[in-house]
Q: What sequence folds into this?
């Protein structure tokens, strides 16, 4: 074979290798682009491999969760989330219950009798209005009474049994349960964090 043909053959093979490399690169790029589109459609959390970290509710702070939840409603009770948790623990109550009652009775403290700090409709009937000295005082009294009057004295063990004597509305307990479930679902954003693995 003459040198001219050898040189043409060399350049032909070189072009073929270069063409194959370009085709391979385009194929890989297309797959990556498709993966990114799929990630956007499905959500990054579903498309990327995940590792669950062992966070617990205590580590992420129930008060921070409750404060954040109440802020969504522009609730004046948001800044008193620590009191809800403190009183719930002191009285062995579900930490979401007293806030949930406030959600039902006053839209989380936004619709209350004037100067009452009573977000729970507690001892409010006819012209009678129970007034508290502050939000914290109201949280403390309602939490204490739920435990000692409704549960210990009257034997209630569920929100439905409490509702039988707390409120005239037969759907009251279901409404309270709705807010408790909503707070619980909200708390899962904090209690089930995930970390993506990068390659």
A:
């Amino acid at each position: 074979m003459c040198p001219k043909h050898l040189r043409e053959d060399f350049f032909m093979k070189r072009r073929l290798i270069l063409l194959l490399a370009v085709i391979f690169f385009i194929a890989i790029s297309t797959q990556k682009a498709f993966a990114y589109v799929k990630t956007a459609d499905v959500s990054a959390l579903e498309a990327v491999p995940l590792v669950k970290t062992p966070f617990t509710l205590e580590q992420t702070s129930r008060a921070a969760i409750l404060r954040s939840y109440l802020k969504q409603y522009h609730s004046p009770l948001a800044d008193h989330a620590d009191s809800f948790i403190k009183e719930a623990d002191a009285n062995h109550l579900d930490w979401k219950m007293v806030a949930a009652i406030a959600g039902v009775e006053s839209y989380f403290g936004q619709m209350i009798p004037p100067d009452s700090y009573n977000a729970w409709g507690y001892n409010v009937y006819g012209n009678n209005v129970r007034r508290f000295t502050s939000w914290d005082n109201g949280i403390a009294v309602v939490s204490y009474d739920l435990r000692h009057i409704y549960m210990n004295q009257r034997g209630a063990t569920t929100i439905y049994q409490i509702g039988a004597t707390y409120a005239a509305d037969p759907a009251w307990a279901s409404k309270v349960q709705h807010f408790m479930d909503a707070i619980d679902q909200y708390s899962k954003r904090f209690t089930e964090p995930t970390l993506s693995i990068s390659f």
Q: What stands out?
A: The chain has nine helices and two strands. The longest helix spans residues 3-42. The first strand starts at residue 50 and ends at 52. Strands lie at 50-52, 194-196.
